[in-house]
DNA sequence: GACCTGCTGCGGTTTG
């Protein structure tokens, strides 16, 4: 037996004797920093607690050591509810907690869709100990046991939310907030909420998310444990694409597959093979299609050399047993394995630590990049990140985004920001009215009918939909009644309508999010394929599909069909890296990188050379001093702001009568008279900020979330603009631009 | 040309 935690720890002495004994037996020499800090705060039980600490720094124990101490000291029927975004995480935590709880005679009950009904019935008979549950299962539990919640959770002492960052700013997060609020209401008291995460950019916003009405103070704990050392390299590659007449022709045998690969893709995969072979690693190429492509290439190299395969794919469309095979390969000792994966392996599942991370193209966000990096670095060793930036070979009429090396510059910006521990601040201003509809229907089930005024008070007045005034709520009730979702009895009670009954009685109701729907692209009666829509689409909007450029003719929201025609003239702009929404902070850092002159130490020689060329263009075009560029038939505007500002600017210019489009780096405004654009911008600068609802009037695809189709038009517009626009940011940009009184060159 | 997450109750069959 090793020595007890020797540093005369006050926190250690606060723990139950039996837990102290378990700590000795586990051979811990001391408590970790997050644990030292969390134990007194959680035992006090009079505040919420947010714990931010790196992976493997004992977050789970920081929460559960004091919580179990508390359960042991109170009456036998007390319990704690642990809420997780993943079933896999519940299964992992169950194994970890069982070891400790068995000796304490505290039961641990996992509860999610794969758990047998008998286990759930047993917990309901004796609701004590640790309940590990998903938001969806908790929703089902509240709806089916509304009358018995006081009896079930009378002994509830704490709510624990794991991986808090995975919930913030999402419709599922809104549901989680509402579930916790409904528990407080049912028990007529508050229960302390404990949140755990490794990548919280803004601790105050995290605490505000954990309890939106701020009725209870929050204790914020940031671990002082030194983070792991990082080794970072950004590699540049020039891509020489193949001149393919018909991409369909390349769906064929292996030889065709090989031929269909661009030179850059092959260069990257050869470098991956050389560098990663012999150790465990994760490769993130951003899409399921790319996962398949790189996994097949790397596996092929192993076969060619007669070596056992070391490369395994992992993504959400793969069958469960295929995914488990990859996870098993990563966990197996003595045999190296690298997973090529999507965000499925970004968090949660225990795969052991890996030696390095490879990121192909830009990561979807800085926070995501950091989360991926956290999976690398064995005990004491540095975490290693290699970013691969693929840039197009330039031609006489290459688009400016290629010339300015958008991919490379964005990757570099993401790395610099993550080294500073900067993460995108979450947009906690999104209304998520889709989830309001779900929660209203759930409340009716939970209470067996509810008065309209009470429903507003629970959900909006005291609850988590604080931005919804009474008149909007009434508007929503009327619309839902019109659609047979709700009925109101003569006594004023809200009940499910005929259609609402069907919604609520299907098991798919419990999830706040929907499986992604795709739109079918049609040209002249022929289907070109299907794609999900994440950008605003209006008549005339340009789309890239199947390697060609199209213009939208019409959009049928019910049938999910977009009619298009070929766009006229011009070269295809290249939207490499996707159209993922980029934050203000990332675009500002990109501008900064382009305006500097010194080489960047973590870029390889190719990347630095590409960057120097881009910087030269940036200077010669005067983009450093003037964000407006007059060209033939158009003006290009470079605000260096995030996509919410860019979307807003494009819509404001459209309202002023121009044809304007957000292309990511710039807004392209069609005109033969640049002076007119400048006059319009001056006009917008001296006008008050526009009404966001009016701005999106012409946007045809305003449905973002699961039940948005049930919203009245006015609320749908409000909801859409709250998620996609930044009117204040756009207006401020235009005012600053106009104040400079330059005219376009 | 993003990506990911989650799901009840019941009836039938099989197994201990």
UniProtKB/TrEMBL annotation:
Name of the featured protein: ATP-dependent RNA helicase DbpA
Ranges where the Helicase C-terminal domain occurs: 267-423
Alphabetical UniProt keywords: ATP-binding, Helicase, Hydrolase, Nucleotide-binding
Species name: Methylovulum psychrotolerans
Residue stretches making up the Helicase ATP-binding domain: 40-218
Superkingdom, taxonomy of origin: Bacteria
GO MF entry, a single one: ATP hydrolysis activity
Listed PROSITE patterns: HELICASE_ATP_BIND_1, HELICASE_CTER
EC number from the UniProt entry: 3.6.4.13
Gene name of this polypeptide: dbpA
Pfam family, one: DEAD
């Amino acid at each position: 037996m090793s020595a007890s935690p020797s540093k005369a720890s006050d926190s250690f002495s606060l723990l139950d004797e039996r837990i102290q004994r378990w700590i000795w037996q586990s051979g811990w020499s001391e408590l970790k920093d997050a644990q030292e800090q969390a134990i007194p705060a959680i035992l006090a039980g009079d505040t919420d607690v947010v714990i931010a600490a790196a992976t493997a720094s004992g977050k789970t124990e920081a929460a559960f050591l004091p919580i179990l101490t508390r359960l042991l000291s109170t009456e036998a029927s007390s319990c704690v509810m642990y809420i997780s975004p993943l079933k896999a995480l519940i299964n992992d935590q169950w194994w970890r907690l069982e070891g400790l709880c068995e000796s304490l005679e505290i039961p641990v009950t996992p509860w999610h869709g794969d758990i047998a009904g008998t286990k759930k019935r047993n917990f309901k008979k004796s609701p004590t100990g640790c309940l590990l549950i998903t938001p969806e299962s908790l929703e089902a539990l509240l709806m089916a046991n509304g009358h018995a919640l006081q009896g079930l959770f009378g002994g509830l002492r704490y709510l624990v939310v794991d991986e808090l960052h995975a919930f913030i700013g999402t419709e599922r997060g809104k549901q989680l907030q509402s579930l916790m609020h409904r528990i407080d209401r049912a028990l007529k008291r508050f229960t302390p909420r404990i949140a755990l995460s490794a990548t919280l950019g803004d601790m105050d916003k995290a605490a505000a998310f954990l309890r939106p009405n701020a009725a209870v103070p929050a204790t914020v704990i940031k671990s002082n444990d030194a983070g792991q050392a990082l080794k970072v390299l950004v590699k540049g590659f020039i891509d020489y694409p193949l001149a393919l007449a018909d991409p369909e022709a390349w769906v064929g045998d292996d030889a065709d597959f090989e031929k269909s690969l661009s030179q850059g893709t092959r260069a990257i995969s050869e470098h991956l093979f050389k560098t990663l072979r012999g150790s465990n690693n994760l490769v993130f190429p951003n899409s399921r299609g790319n996962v398949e492509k790189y996994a097949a290439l790397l596996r092929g190299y192993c076969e060619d050399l007669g070596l056992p395969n070391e490369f395994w794919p992992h993504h959400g469309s793969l069958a469960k047993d295929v995914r488990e095979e990859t996870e098993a390969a990563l966990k197996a000792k003595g045999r190296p394995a690298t997973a090529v994966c999507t965000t499925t392996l970004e968090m949660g599942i225990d795969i052991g630590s890996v030696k390095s991370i490879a990121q192909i193209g830009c990561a979807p966000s800085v926070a995501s990049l950091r989360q991926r990096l956290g999976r690398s670095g064995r005990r004491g060793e540095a975490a290693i990140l290699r970013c691969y930036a693929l840039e197009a070979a330039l031609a006489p009429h290459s688009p400016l985004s290629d010339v300015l090396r958008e991919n490379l510059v964005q990757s570099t910006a993401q790395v610099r920001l993550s080294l500073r521990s900067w993460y995108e601040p979450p947009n906690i201003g999104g209304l998520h009215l889709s989830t309001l509809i779900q929660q209203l229907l759930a409340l009716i089930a939970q209470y067996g009918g509810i008065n309209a005024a009470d429903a507003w008070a629970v959900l909006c007045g005291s609850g988590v939909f604080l931005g919804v005034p009474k008149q909007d709520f009434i508007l929503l009730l009327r619309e839902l009644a019109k659609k047979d979702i709700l009925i109101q009895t003569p006594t004023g009670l809200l009940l499910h309508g005929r259609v609402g009954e069907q919604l609520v009685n299907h098991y798919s109701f419990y999830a706040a999010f929907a499986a992604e729907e795709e739109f079918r692209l049609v040209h002249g009666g022929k289907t070109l394929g299907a794609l999900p829509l994440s950008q605003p689409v209006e008549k005339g909007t340009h789309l890239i599909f199947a390697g060609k450029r199209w213009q939208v003719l019409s959009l049928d929201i019910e049938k999910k069909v977009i009619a298009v025609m070929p766009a006229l003239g011009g070269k295809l702009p290249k939207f490499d890296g996707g159209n993922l929404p980029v934050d203000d902070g990332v675009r500002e850092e990109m501008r900064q990188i382009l305006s500097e002159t010194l080489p960047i130490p973590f870029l390889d020689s190719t990347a630095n050379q590409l960057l120097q060329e881009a910087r030269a263009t940036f200077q010669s075009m005067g983009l450093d001093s003037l964000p407006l560029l007059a060209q033939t038939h158009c003006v290009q505007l470079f605000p260096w702001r995030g996509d919410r500002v860019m979307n807003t600017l494009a819509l404001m210019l459209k309202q002023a009568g121009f044809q304007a489009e957000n292309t990511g780096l710039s807004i392209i405004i069609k005109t033969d008279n640049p002076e007119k654009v400048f006059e319009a911008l001056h006009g917008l600068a001296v006008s008050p900020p526009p009404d966001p609802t009016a701005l999106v009037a012409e946007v045809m695809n305003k449905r973002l979330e699961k039940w948005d189709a049930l919203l009245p038009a006015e609320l749908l517009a409000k909801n859409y603009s709250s998620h996609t626009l930044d009117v204040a940011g756009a207006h401020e940009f235009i005012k600053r631009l106009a104040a400079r009184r330059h005219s376009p060159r």
